[in-house]
Amino acid sequence: MPARTALNARTTKTLDRSAYNVENVIFESRPGFLVTANLYVPKGLTKAAPGVVGSCGHSDTGKAGDTYQSFAQGLARQGYVVLIFDPIGQGERLQYVDDKRKSFIGPGTSEHLLAGNQQVLIDECFAGWRAWDGIRALDYLLTRPEVDPARVGITGNSGGGTMTTWLCALEDRWSMAAPSCFVTTFRRNLENELAADSEQYPWRAIAQSLDMDDFVACMAPKPVILLGKERDYFDARGFEESFARLKRLYTLLGKPENISSFLGAGTHGFTQDNREAMYKWFNRATGSTHSGAEDILQLEDEKDLWATPDGQVALAKSKSIVAFTRERSRELTTARTTLKGADLRRVLGAALKMPLAAAPPDARIMRPVARRGFPTPAFATYTVETEPGIHAIVYWLTKEQHLSRPPRNLENVTLYVSHHSADREVRDDAFARGLVVDGTAFCSVDVRGVGESRPGTGSSDDFTRPYGSDYFYAGHSLMLDAPYVGRKTFDVLRVIEWLRLNAGTRRVHLAAAGWGTLPATFAALLSDTVTQVTLSGAPASYASIAESERYTWPLSSFVPGVLRYFDLPDCYAELEGKGLRRV
Q: What residues contact residue 451 under an 8 Å CB cut-off, 6+ apart?
């Protein structure tokens, strides 16, 4: 988290309603980074009232969304001072704005993924950025004389339930909390093949044996209610498992009455039944005499809730998250020293966090498929087990039929690491086909998650989509503290070792295209068996990706925090000693 800086808060407009006033507020969570919010202040207050920070889920209109207006109005009618703010990339806080005040990549999750994935390179976590906005929202709420600082809570739904959960752990000043439609278990999300947003993958959480309820446990024994839905995609079984663990903890602390749950009957959403469960819980925690029943609501027009003149902070000259990332990338590039030789390999190995190799890699010989269209008459297919249960797919192209183990005493081998599919690329791609040269043994490899090693997670056609299987596993790799590109690199190294042990290979020409160039580059640096390197379509640098508004490289290609330590040009310079050729 950054240092606290001046909020520079101001109210730009006030709406006078029968039971409360709504102040349209702007503050800065970081210097120049504008946050737009609505402050609901009940009328007739005679003393400091309890306060609530409202965290929005993934609505395009942010705080003006029907769900989020509803719980803010509902709480205000129950006597709470409520500050609800737009998340990054939603409502008035679009980060990629065109001349029509629209997001040119799509609001909400599209902006979250583009900004959040990119931040990985500079060692920033999007969940932290989102949470910091919530902490600064509380800072602002507590500047208001209408608010009792001893009675402040947080609630939110979906993505707002996510931030409520994380903020239970990150902020000590809450006196109560009510996360809605998020809390389950990481395992249920994984097994249910539920891809999540950038802020829903807290780095290293699983590696440190944390689950969602552990973040909530930091509130114990303060009052917390978990809110969910029976038919939500956030699994109700995980919801109940989390609640059971928290109930045991609160019981051990002598406050079993301070943890509760409410599981509504419907589908995902902060519907009236969940909202009323939240009102009643907060009323109990604050000693309010309100019934908790929701009054009739009068939703506002989105424009009436704008804190900026034109409905976008970008037009009010807010600094964008992309600008922060670009600036940090340049700072890191200037600050670090250039690594070479053993120092570069040591730092690279540490950054990739590859597992320790155990037994020599074994392989299955797969049954052949005739007439595949490769540039040689025959081929053999092997599945090389790189880790227990994890297989890289290797095609060995041959002139004559070969259905056994690899040929022996092949001192020189060209190994091609595919972009998306070795099968297709060796058949149809000019670069890959051009690597097949008479007199040189040639094989290709699909590392884990690529080509014929793709998992069936999600639907069959979602591999490259924003929430596709490639992103799904890359996101989980951050929580496991096991970078996906590091495991792909490990696959390449294990295949090279398999060639050395089974074919007697002493020299490998390692070639790769597109996404395969990253694991190939790193494997070439770490393996003495690689003596020649050819890369097609490799990125110029990680810095160029971190500083671009519209990059196309996937999260699975990124090394977390890499720009603190080295960049790809350092790797390329080192590989010049191995005859590096970049196409």
A: 393, 418, 420, 421, 422, 423, 424
